[in-house]
Write a structure and sequence with these properties.
Elements (H helix, E strand, L loop, with lengths): L7 H16 L9 H20 L5 H13 L5 H19 L5 H43 L5 H14 L3 E6 L4 E4 L1 H7 L3 H5 L15 H9 L5 E9 L5 E12 L5 E10 L1 H15 L9 H12 L6 E9 L2 H8 L1 H18 L5 E5 L4 E8 L2 H15 L4 E3 L2 E3 L3 E9 L5 H17 L4 E4 L2 H22 L3 E10 L5 E12 L3 E3 L1 H11 L2 H22 L10 E6 L1 H4 L4 H12 L6 E6 H4 L4 H13 L2 E7 L16 E4 L14 H16 L3 E4 L5 H10 L3 E2 L10 H13 L1
Parallel strand pairs: 11-12, 14-16, 16-17, 17-18, 18-19, 19-20, 20-21
Antiparallel strand pairs: 1-2, 1-5, 3-4, 4-5, 6-8, 6-11, 7-8, 9-10, 13-14, 13-21, 14-15
Helix pairs in contact: 1-2, 1-4, 2-3, 2-5, 3-5, 4-5, 5-6, 5-10, 12-13, 13-14, 16-17, 18-20
C-alpha cells in the first residue's frame, strides 16, 4: 500500500500528478507528460494558496483557468477534467488543516473562477484567430488578378485548416462555402448546410438585436457584429456559438459577401450552467440555496405596483436533538424528507421553496392576493410536517416554527424582509413552537432594540455607563432607616436611563451578568462602608446595611464565595452588613450543590433574603432547608392594604406568612409600600422592615445618608 504524502509540498505534488494525468490526454501540447506535469506545478500552488488565503481572491482562479489555454489545454474536456480534479482532490491534499465545509465552499468558487478565466482566455485567443482569418479572407478576395492563384491557395489553407467554423454567403443570404469545422459543428452534409439561407437559421433564444444587426450589415451600414447565438442541428439538438459576422467588400469598396466565424461554445455553456446550478442550489436537498433565494426575493420585491409578496420562514423544532442522538446522517435524511414535503407545498406559479441554513427553510409566494395565499401556504407546510418521518426503523416527529411576513412590493429590501421573518419565527418558537406567527412591526422593533442592547452591553460596562440607585429599607417598629437595596441602572447614550428589567435578562442570556453583578456588589459594598464611616458615632441608628440582588447565573458561578469575601475584605465591611437577595424561583428544587455557596456565605454572617416570596409556588416546608434569614414578601400580597378597609383575605395570608417566618427565626421585609395606612397595617401584622415609594424612591447614595442622619438625630 502506498504511503500518504508527508508534507504540504508532497501533497501538492501528488495533487499535481493526479491533475496532469487527467488533463494530458485532452490537451494539444507537444510536451511529454512529465514535462506537462512540471508546467502544472505553479498552477497547483496558486490554487492551494488561494484555497487557504485569509480572503478569497477570484482572480487567482481566473489566472489558473487562463494559464490552461497557454498550456494548449483548449478543449472543453480539458477544463471539465481540471474542474473535476479540483473538486475531488484540492481540499483533500491542500486543505486538510482547515474547516472542511468552508474550504469546500471556497473550492467551488475557485472552480467557477477557473471556468470564467478559461472562457475569457479562449475567447481572446479565438478572436485573435478570427481576426487573422478575416484578414486573410479580405486579402484573398481583394488581390489583383496576377496573384489570384497564390492568394486563393493561402486562403484555402486557412479556410480548411481553421479550428473554428467558417461560412461565406452572399448578401442575399445564400450560403456559398463552408469549411469542415463548421460541418462538424452542425453534424450534417455540405449540401444540407449550403442549401439553407442565413435567414432560416433562427432560434427562439435569439436576442432581439441579432437580426437587426444582420440587416444593418448586409445593407453596408456596419462592418461586423459579434453575438452569442444558438442554432438547431439537423438532428434537433442545439448548437451554441460565439458568432462573428463580417462584411467583405470588393476592390471598389462595395459590399459583396458576408463572412461568418463560429466558435462552438455548447460544452462551455453546459459547464457554466452546471457550475451555476451548483452555486445556487443546496447540495443535500437540491433546493435553491440562500444565494438564489435572495435573487428571487429581490426580483419579487421589485415587481410592478399593485403586486404583493408573502414569505414563510421555517425552522425545525428540536433538530439539534436528532443530530446529537441519532447522528448527522439521520439528520441529513430528515432534512431531505422535509425538503421533498415542502416542495410539494409550493407548486403554484409565483411560489418557491429554498433551504437557507442548517434546518432553516423559506417559502415565497407572489401575486396580487398574497394576504390569503401566504396563510394557506403556511397551513400546507404545517400539515405536511404532521406525518412522522421513518428513519432507521424509528418514527421521528417533525415540528416547526414559522414566521410570516406579507406586504406590498417596493417598500422593503430582501435583508429587511428576511430579518423580520427571522424575528417572527423566533417569536413563534418562544411561544412553544409548532405554530406560525405573523410579523408585527412593533415586535420587530422591540426585538431589534433588544439585539442592539445585547451587543452594546459589554462596551457599556467598559465605558462606565452603569450606575446604582439606592432605595431605603425602613424598620417598621421605629421608622428608622435600616439599610438600602442597590438597584443598577444603565445610562444608555440613545435610550436614556434603562431600568433592570430592560437589560438584566439580556445580561443573563449572554453571561455578562457575572462581571456586571460583581461590579454592582463591589460598588454597593464600598458605598455601605462609606455610609458607616460618615454615620459613625450615631449608635442609635445602628450600622447601615446593603442589600444586593443575585441572579440565577451568579449562583452557579464558581467564584461567588471567593469574590464576595474578597470584596468585603478590601472594603473593610463586616459580612453582617451585607444581604444577598435571591429570587424564590431561582431556588425552587435547588439541590445541595446549588445551596452550598449560599450556606457558606450564611455561615460567614452574610444574610440571605428570599426575594419575591409567594410567587414561586414553592413548598413552605422547603424553607427549613434553605440558608435564608429574611423573607421579602412580594408586593402582590400587600396591594389590597392600600385601600380602606384592607382586604381581609390578604390580611390573613400576610399574617400567616409572618407567623410562619417568625417561627422559623426569619425576618420579614415587605416591598411596594405606598401609603401610610398600608405601612401601619403591616407594622401591626408584625412585619419587620419595608421599602417603597411611601418612604422614598430609589435615588443617589447621598440622599439615603441624609435620611439616616435625620433618623439618628431624631
Amino acid at each position: 500500500m502506498m504511503a500518504e504524502p508527508d508534507g504540504p509540498e508532497d501533497r501538492l505534488r501528488r495533487f499535481t500528478t493526479i491533475w496532469s494525468r487527467a488533463v494530458y490526454p485532452a490537451s494539444a501540447t507537444s510536451l511529454t507528460r512529465p514535462e506537462f506535469e512540471l508546467k502544472l506545478v505553479p498552477l497547483a500552488r496558486r490554487l492551494s494558496e488561494a484555497l487557504r488565503a485569509r480572503t478569497f481572491d477570484a482572480a487567482e482562479g481566473q489566472a489558473v483557468g487562463a494559464a490552461l489555454i497557454d498550456a494548449h489545454c483548449t478543449e472543453p474536456e480539458a477544463l471539465s477534467r481540471s474542474l473535476d480534479c479540483v473538486d475531488a482532490y484540492l481540499v483533500l491534499y491542500c486543505g486538510e488543516d482547515g474547516p472542511q465545509e468552508d474550504l469546500r465552499n471556497r473550492s467551488a468558487r475557485l472552480q467557477h473562477a477557473m471556468a470564467a478565466g478559461f472562457a475569457h482566455a479562449l475567447r481572446e485567443r479565438t478572436l485573435a484567430e478570427q481576426e487573422a482569418i478575416a484578414q486573410a479572407a479580405l486579402e484573398a478576395q481583394g488581390v489583383v488578378a496576377e496573384a489570384l492563384h497564390s492568394s486563393e491557395a493561402r486562403f484555402r489553407a486557412v479556410f480548411e485548416g481553421a479550428a473554428i467554423g467558417i461560412g461565406i454567403a452572399d448578401l442575399d443570404g445564400n450560403v456559398l462555402q463552408v469549411n469542415n469545422a463548421l460541418l462538424r459543428m452542425f453534424g450534417g452534409t455540405e449540401q444540407l448546410v449550403r442549401g439553407r439561407k442565413v435567414v432560416e437559421w433562427t432560434h427562439p433564444d435569439d436576442a432581439p438585436q441579432v437580426w437587426r444587426l444582420y440587416e444593418e450589415l448586409v445593407r453596408g451600414e456596419r462592418e461586423h457584429y459579434h453575438v452569442e447565438k444558438a442554432f438547431y442541428r439537423p438532428d434537433g439538438t442545439v448548437l451554441w456559438t460565439n458568432l462573428t459576422v463580417s462584411l467583405l467588400r470588393d476592390a471598389d469598396g462595395c459590399p459583396q459577401y458576408q463572412l461568418a466565424l463560429m466558435e462552438d461554445t455548447t460544452e462551455r455553456r453546459l459547464l457554466n450552467l452546471r457550475l451555476r446550478y451548483e452555486a445556487t442550489h443546496d447540495a443535500l436537498t437540491g433546493l435553491p440555496n440562500r444565494t438564489l433565494f435572495f435573487e428571487r426575493l429581490d426580483k419579487a420585491l421589485s415587481a410592478r405596483e399593485g403586486m404583493r409578496f408573502g414569505l414563510c420562514y421555517l425552522d425545525l423544532d428540536g433538530f439539534k436533538t436528532i443530530n446529537d442522538s441519532l447522528g448527522h446522517a439521520a439528520g441529513d435524511r430528515l432534512l431531505v424528507e422535509v425538503a421533498d414535503r415542502l416542495q410539494s407545498c409550493a407548486t403554484a406559479p409565483g411560489e418557491m421553496v429554498a433551504r437557507i441554513g442548517g434546518d432553516e427553510f423559506v417559502a415565497l409566494t407572489t401575486g396580487p392576493d398574497t394576504e390569503r395565499e401566504v396563510d394557506a401556504l403556511a397551513d400546507r407546510i404545517m400539515n405536511a410536517l404532521v406525518t412522522p418521518v421513518r428513519i432507521d426503523g424509528r418514527e421521528l416527529t417533525v415540528r416547526g416554527s414559522i414566521g410570516i411576513v406579507e406586504g406590498p412590493t417596493g417598500e422593503r429590501g430582501p435583508a429587511e424582509v428576511l430579518r423580520s421573518a427571522d424575528i417572527t419565527m423566533y417569536r413563534a418558537k418562544s411561544a412553544g413552537g409548532n405554530r406560525y406567527e405573523l410579523a408585527d412591526a412593533e415586535a420587530d422593533a422591540r426585538a431589534i432594540t433588544r439585539h442592539g442592547l445585547t451587543t452594546q452591553l459589554p462596551a457599556a460596562l467598559d465605558r462606565n455607563e452603569f450606575f446604582i440607585e439606592y432605595q431605603p429599607l425602613v424598620h417598621l417598629g421605629d421608622g428608622s432607616v435600616h439599610g438600602a437595596e442597590a438597584l443598577v441602572r444603565w445610562l444608555h447614550p440613545q435610550h436614556g436611563v434603562l431600568t433592570p428589567d430592560r437589560f438584566i435578562p439580556l445580561a443573563e442570556h449572554t453571561g455578562l451578568i457575572v462581571p456586571l453583578g460583581r461590579w454592582v456588589l463591589e460598588q454597593s459594598v464600598r458605598q455601605a462602608r462609606e455610609w458607616q464611616e460618615r454615620h459613625g458615632g450615631k449608635a442609635a441608628a445602628g450600622p447601615l446595611r446593603i442589600n444586593v440582588n443575585l441572579s440565577p447565573c451568579q449562583l452557579t458561578h464558581p467564584g461567588l464565595v471567593s469574590d464576595t469575601v474578597d470584596i468585603l475584605e478590601r472594603a473593610g465591611l463586616e459580612p453582617a452588613s451585607l444581604c444577598l437577595e435571591v429570587t424564590e424561583s431561582a431556588l425552587i428544587g435547588a439541590d445541595d450543590d446549588l445551596l452550598k455557596p449560599l450556606r457558606r456565605l450564611s455561615e460567614m454572617g452574610v444574610d440571605i433574603a428570599l426575594d419575591d416570596f409567594g410567587t414561586g409556588y414553592s413548598n413552605l416546608a422547603n424553607l427549613r432547608r434553605l440558608p435564608v434569614s429574611i423573607l421579602k414578601l412580594d408586593r402582590s400580597f400587600t396591594q389590597g392594604m392600600q385601600q380602606f378597609p384592607a382586604d381581609p383575605v390578604d390580611l390573613k395570608i400576610v399574617e400567616g406568612i409572618v407567623s410562619l417566618a417568625h417561627s422559623l427565626d426569619l425576618a420579614v421585609t415587605v416591598e411596594g409600600v405606598e401609603t401610610g395606612a398600608q405601612a401601619e397595617q403591616l407594622r401591626i401584622l408584625g412585619c419587620d422592615t419595608a421599602q417603597g415609594w411611601y418612604y422614598a424612591r430609589p435615588g443617589p447614595p447621598d440622599r439615603l445618608h441624609d435620611l439616616a442622619l435625620v433618623d439618628a438625630t431624631g
